[in-house]
Write a structure and sequence with these properties.
The protein is α/β, with parallel strands linked by helices. The chain folds into two domains: 165 residues, Aspartate Aminotransferase, domain 1, CATH 3.90.1150; 264 residues, 3-Layer(aba) Sandwich (Aspartate Aminotransferase, domain 2), CATH 3.40.640.10. It is built from 16 helices and 16 strands. Strand 8 and strand 9 form a beta hairpin. Helix 15 crosses helix 16. The two termini are 33 Å apart. The protein binds pyridoxal-5'-phosphate. Pyridoxal-5'-phosphate (PLP) binds next to helix 6.
């Protein structure tokens, strides 16, 4: 352990970590980043195959974005956003209203993903309070959902590792059994799927719609659940159900927005428009915390009234609408346009699939699932029964450590090794990423 690592452990508590693990595996001290790579103070490189927790789009220290920040900081770093505004926020809002699915015309700013989810939940609840349906107070999420770590966001989450201990503090939400395509209980494949697994959702909504205000869902890919990919038909059916029962559909596109799934927004795969959409992570290309909550005019309208009627949305965060974040987001959208990112990613995505294919012969690789720039290998103890490894074995964590030794930052989720690289990843990087994943899997599990 070097001096910086010793000091780090003396003072710092790292996220999502058992700090005792750091005794034998101290934090890597980074000095800089460039493109798809991070470099530590000894000059060792790490290919960032997880886009630094799914946020980075165009590589670290991207020249165009660096310049946009430099320009903005010379003008205005931050200012109060109540009764004040600025061009970066206006430009961003206008462009997002045009880019996002039909009907999402109004933007509320927050400063990270979880707070965007809080805003979305509060908006939906307050909307129904003010529209004469005060009994609509409950939310619905699907199994293994992940929507962030603050208390309301955890309430609509369904991953025990994150929320079990807090259950006494959480809202009373409905959890519907969601898609589970690798182990489909209906015996279908993603190709043959007709969305039968909507049935539990349908039962819950039809029985309890009078007390339900919104359904929240990660469209197409359940990230934290292990990059569980499901067909758009589920979303199509869900949209119809929500319409039938006057329930808001909240699309949490925090992880999947901005091209991650091969379309600008994941909802496009199902050709649906949610009532509310949450965006963060890739919004600032991985540079700064910022989030947006997009909503329909109808929702906005339910809050628009004379002040004394007390229907306003009295919600704020100190860094709401931060000009630097907005300027970065605008430049990121420019890059999407100028560099035909979505088109180019199709080639990258195909390359990843090709390179992964031989790995499917490994006895512990259950499936490779992929949608756009998200790919995931699910490791299993037994391919036939699809039985997973015991969580106590920490298969992902072991593979993570081996891959790091070989210069690739993979950070699996449980038994799922996933690839979510920055869009600037090139062919050599892909070889390194998948070659190292293979090496790590074989080193730990055998050939
Ligand atoms: C990361 C994530 C969040 C939470 O965002 P934070 O900025 O980490 O608070 C919420 N929903 C989804 C789907 C996410 O992937």
């Amino acid at each position: 352990m070097n001096e910086l690592q010793r000091k780090d452990l003396q003072y710092i508590w790292h996220p999502c970590s058992q700090m005792k693990d750091y005794e034998s595996f101290p934090p890597i001290v980074l000095e800089r980043g460039e493109g798809a790579y991070l470099y530590d103070i000894e000059g060792k490189s790490y290919l960032d195959a997880v886009s630094s927790w799914w946020v980075n789009l165009f590589g670290h220290s991207n020249k165009r974005i660096n310049k946009a920040i430099a320009n903005q900081v010379e003008k205005l770093e931050h200012a109060i956003f109540a009764n004040f505004t600025h061009k970066p926020a206006i430009d961003l809002a206008e462009r997002m209203a045009r880019l996002t699915p039909q009907g999402l015309n109004k933007v509320f700013f927050a400063d990270n993903g979880s707070s965007a989810v809080e805003v979305a939940l509060k908006l939906s609840f307050q909307y129904h309070q003010q529209m004469g349906k005060p009994e609509k107070t409950r939310f619905v999420a699907i199994s293994e959902a992940y929507h962030g770590e603050t208390l309301a966001a955890l309430s609509v989450g369904d991953i025990d590792l994150y929320n079990e201990i807090y259950k006494p503090l959480l809202l009373n939400t409905f959890k519907a059994a969601g898609p589970n395509c690798y182990r489909c209980p209906y015996g279908e494949t993603r190709e043959t799927c007709t969305g039968n697994c909507i049935e539990n959702m349908e039962q819950i909504l039809s029985a309890h719609h009078e007390e339900i205000t919104a359904v929240i869902i990660e469209p197409m890919v359940q990230g934290a659940a292990g990059m569980k990919i499901y067909p758009g038909i589920y979303l199509k059916k869900l949209r119809q159900l929500c319409d039938t029962y006057d329930i808001h559909l909240i699309a949490d596109e925090i992880a999947v927005g901005f091209g991650r799934t091969g379309r600008m927004f994941a909802c496009e795969h199902a050709d649906i428009s949610p009532d509310i959409m949450c965006l963060s992570k890739g919004l600032t290309a991985g540079y700064m915390p910022l989030s947006l909550v997009m909503m329909t005019d109808k929702i906005y309208g339910a809050f628009y009234d004379d002040y004394v009627n007390l229907r306003a949305f009295m919600h704020s965060h100190s860094y709401t609408g931060n000009p630097m974040g907005c300027a970065i987001a605008c430049e990121s959208l420019n890059i999407f346009e100028d560099e035909e990112v979505i088109e180019k990613n199709k080639i990258t995505s195909r390359l990843i699939r090709e390179r992964v294919t031989p790995l499917l012969n490994h006895p512990n690789v259950g499936e490779f699932r992929q949608l756009g720039m998200v790919g995931a290998l699910e490791l299993v103890k037994d391919k036939k029964s699809k039985e997973g490894f015991d969580w106590k074995q920490r298969v992902g964590y072991q593979i993570y450590q081996i891959a790091l030794k070989h210069g690739v930052l993979l950070r699996p989720l449980g038994n799922v090794v996933y690839f979510m690289p920055p869009y600037v990843i090139n062919e050599n990087d892909i070889d390194l990423m998948i070659g190292t994943a293979e090496k790590a899997i074989c080193e730990y599990l055998g050939k």
